[in-house]
Amino acid sequence: MTDDELRDLDREVKKRKRIASEWASKLHDLVEDRLPAGWQEIPEISQGTIEACQAWAEANARLQAAQKG
Length: 69
Description:
Mean pLDDT: 97
Oligomer: single chain
Number of strands: 0
Helix content: over 70%
CATH class: Mainly Alpha
Largest sheet: none
Distance between the termini: 8 Å
CATH topology: Helix Hairpins
CATH architecture: Orthogonal Bundle
Order of helices and strands: HH
Radius of gyration: 16 Å
Low-confidence stretches: none
């Protein structure tokens, strides 16, 4: 993998981590501010959080593997 490809993959990991953090923030806000009245939002926010974290984990695993050679 070239240096440019590694940099691109590193940027992807950082982007996906930011997105996962944004979803986690939504989940936190739901818990802190809108429950129990906002209970209907739990599935959508939870699923978004799970998907964002999975996307980060997959990108991070690719980066780790590429860095090891």
